[in-house]
């Protein structure tokens, strides 16, 4: 069970109780009626006659009675409830629950529109995961059928491309990796390595108590059959930061930092995920620069995260606020239709990131929206778009263990575990030719007319005669010049490299030399941000 930071960090002035047993009794009753909003607040049971304290929270078991069986409240695909750590999410019409603390600890639920039963248990030995036996308190909720749910009628489903054709009406493909080669494209991706953040021995497990170290071995990261494979293996290893601490598994983690970044747009990732206790596949984004300070003041966008033991659902989230531990997050879950899981087929995970909101989809089906009224950065209180107004880069990884699912350990049969990624595609709104095949984007033909537009009539690249120009809304922002050996050269042709970058041959270089360059557009400051450099390839 994931506990919200705002609760798990609370410290009230309780004396550590002395307990003779861990028997539960109701705090003040067992029947609760929903109010006009459909909300119910339930104090946690007393343990041996004493109120629960912070260290007890991770030991409780919460279950709901559904279709004749008691099911884990946290198993959203069965319980029908999602966990909302920062309070009720007004952008979601789902059944929600979470913790509250007001001298005592409790749970809240909203909106309860129908009658239901909940039970709360506690291990008889006081240890997390211990036998509960009959040590439960049973509760009856009386629903309010008139309780409102948020109107989400504007949150429509979207079209997605096919494995063979990335074309989506209304979107222009600007970057992609279809993983069609035989090795990872290092012009697109970097490896992240090791077991520690910034070589700090206090950040073992990537600061999150994870159990894997990351490598650049083809045993962990490889491209085969048109797919990227990230594989977790039993591979015990220690590191110089703390020779007595061992990472029990190896796995893979790659990112696009300094190769590709995005500020606003759409990202589609088609993937098949592994199952198993403690497995944590993820597609996510971090800012290129920590403009607003260390994590999470500068933000994090989670496109997809999954718990390997719960294959019926995945989640998305944003992290924001202040530097840890004053950070906050908002998350939501997608539940696959009956008979489907994230492991038995490929699914497409999408975010559409706009200036004032971010939306999440699975297979084109909407499940979460977060707006700038809900996020903030403590370092920029007067900037409503912060921290999600900066370029972010992409990260793909398969973690093992960690706090995300309570530090669970895989069973022997869960390892090796493989995450497969069919493609990563990045779009901007507007029509245009996608980079590389299919869909065009080849080298300019010398017989082409004097004026050629690559992109759309809003923004893109324009070749007029021998001049290649960036343009936005028809305004020329920059000629493409490079200073080489003290002089200035201008390219006269271009071609796609198969991704979102362009390669420009430049007059005056030796045979085989090229200049590689790409850019992003910052609409807020009406400027082009270069991300390229001269690369000599003799």
What do these coordinates show?
One of its GO terms (molecular function) is carbohydrate binding. Residues 429-450 are annotated as: Disordered. It is built from two helices and 40 strands. It is 1% helix and 42% strand. The chain is mainly beta and 538 residues long. A hairpin with a 2-residue loop joins strand 33 and strand 34 (487-490). The protein has three domains: 5-142, Immunoglobulin-like; 173-429, Jelly Rolls; 451-535, no CATH class.
Keywords:
single chain; 538 residues; mainly beta; Immunoglobulin-like; Jelly Rolls; 3 domains; 10-stranded mixed beta sheet; 7-stranded antiparallel beta sheet; 2 helices; 1% helix; globular; disordered N terminus; disordered C terminus
Please describe the topology of this protein:
Layout: H1 5-8, E1 24-25, E2 31-33, E3 40-43, E4 46-47, E5 61-66, E6 69-72, H2 76-79, E7 81-83, E8 95-102, E9 104-110, E10 116-121, E11 136-142, E12 171-177, E13 190-191, E14 212-214, E15 221-224, E16 227-239, E17 242-251, E18 253-255, E19 265-272, E20 279-287, E21 300-305, E22 313-321, E23 327-335, E24 347-353, E25 357-362, E26 365-371, E27 392-400, E28 417-429, E29 451-455, E30 459-464, E31 467-472, E32 475-479, E33 481-484, E34 487-490, E35 495-496, E36 502-504, E37 514-517, E38 519-522, E39 527-530, E40 533-535
Parallel strand pairs: 2-11, 7-8, 14-17
Antiparallel strand pairs: 1-4, 3-9, 5-6, 5-10, 8-9, 10-11, 12-28, 13-18, 15-16, 16-17, 16-28, 18-27, 19-24, 19-28, 20-21, 20-27, 21-22, 22-23, 24-25, 25-26, 29-30, 30-31, 31-32, 33-34, 35-36, 36-37, 37-40, 38-39
């Amino acid at each position: 069970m994931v506990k919200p930071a705002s609760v798990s960090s609370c410290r009230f002035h309780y004396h550590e109780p002395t307990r003779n047993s861990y028997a539960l009794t109701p705090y003040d009753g067992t029947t609760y009626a929903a109010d006009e909003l459909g909300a119910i607040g339930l104090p946690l049971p007393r343990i041996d006659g004493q109120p629960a304290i912070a260290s007890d929270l991770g030991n409780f078991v919460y279950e709901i009675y559904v279709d004749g069986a008691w099911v884990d409240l946290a198993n959203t695909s069965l319980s029908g409830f999602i966990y909302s750590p920062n309070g009720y999410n007004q952008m979601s019409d789902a059944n929600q629950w979470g913790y509250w603390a007001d001298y005592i600890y409790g749970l809240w639920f909203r909106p309860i529109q129908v009658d239901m039963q909940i039970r709360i248990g506690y291990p008889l030995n006081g240890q997390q995961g211990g036998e509960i036996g009959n040590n439960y308190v049973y509760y009856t909720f009386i629903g309010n059928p008139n309780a409102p749910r948020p109107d989400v009628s504007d949150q429509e489903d979207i079209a997605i491309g096919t494995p063979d054709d990335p074309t989506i009406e209304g979107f222009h493909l600007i970057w992609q990796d279809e993983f069609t080669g035989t090795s990872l494209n290092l012009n697109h991706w970097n490896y992240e390595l090791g077991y520690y953040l910034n070589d700090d021995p206090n950040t073992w497990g990537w600061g999150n108590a994870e159990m894997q170290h990351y490598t650049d071995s083809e045993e962990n990261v490889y491209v085969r059959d048109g797919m990227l494979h990230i594989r977790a293996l039993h591979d015990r290893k220690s590191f110089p930061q703390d020779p007595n601490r061992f990472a029990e598994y190896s796995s893979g983690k790659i990112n696009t930092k300094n190769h590709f970044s995005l500020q606003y747009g759409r990202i589609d990732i088609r993937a098949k995920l592994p199952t198993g206790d403690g497995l944590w596949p993820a597609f996510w984004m971090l800012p290129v620069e920590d403009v607003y300070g260390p994590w999470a003041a500068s933000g994090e966008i989670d496109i997809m995260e999954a718990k390997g033991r719960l294959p019926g659902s995945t989640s998305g989230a944003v992290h924001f606020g202040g530097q840890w531990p004053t950070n906050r997050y908002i998350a939501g879950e997608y539940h696959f239709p009956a008979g489907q899981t994230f492991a038995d087929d490929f699914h497409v995970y999408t975010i559409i990131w706009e200036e004032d909101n971010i939306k999440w989809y699975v297979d084109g089906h909407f499940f979460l929206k977060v707006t700038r009224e809900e996020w903030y950065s403590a370092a920029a209180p007067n900037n409503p778009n912060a921290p999600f107004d900066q370029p972010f880069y992409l990260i793909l990884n398969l973690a093992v263990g960690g706090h995300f699912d309570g530090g669970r350990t895989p069973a022997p049969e869960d390892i090796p575990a493989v995450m497969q990624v069919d493609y990563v595609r990045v779009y901007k709104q507007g029509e245009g030719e996608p980079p590389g095949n299919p869909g065009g984007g080849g080298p300019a033909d010398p017989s082409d007319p004097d004026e050629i537009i690559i992109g759309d009539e809003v923004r893109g690249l324009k070749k007029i005669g021998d001049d290649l120009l960036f343009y936005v809304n028809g305004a020329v922002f920059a000629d493409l010049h490079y200073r080489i050996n003290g002089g200035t050269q201008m390219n006269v042709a271009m071609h796609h490299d198969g991704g979102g970058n362009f390669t420009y041959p430049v007059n005056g270089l030796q045979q085989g030399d090229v200049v590689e360059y790409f850019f992003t557009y910052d609409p807020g400051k009406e400027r082009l941000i270069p991300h390229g450099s001269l690369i000599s390839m003799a």
